[in-house]
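Many introductory courses stop at the sequence. We go one step further.
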Amino acid sequence: MEDLREIKAQKPLVTTSLVDPAGAADPALAANHFSGKLALETDPSDVHSDLMAGHSGFVVLDTRPTEAYERAHVPGAISMPYRTIDELMTRKLGQDELIVVYCWGPACNAAAKGAVRLATLGYRVKEMVGGIEYWRREGYPIARGSDPGSITA
């Protein structure tokens, strides 16, 4: 962090805004953008709240390697490494259920790769942004081993 401050201190000040170089987006464009984003993403807080409330209609899928799932996963999540997602592997998933995928964290794209495979197979899918890293940062419980576990256990 100190290095970044030192680097920025050496840069000349810019005369135009870096935050708003092209002007703010039209509110309708912003509404469409963020609505689209929310249609494709959720976060650990919302997933945890829905699991605790017992909301049905969605399944949480861990797209990391099986070994990572066994070390720590969202309680109730199903292990399905993204490379294994195909018609055969997804037979146990309901075609009408929303699939919430996650991986390690923001620097991991296994969830996005799994989401592409699932969407191509006709499933509705969202990514839990932040993955297991942010789930843990928020202090939510984790399960271990090959059993999915339960959020209420």
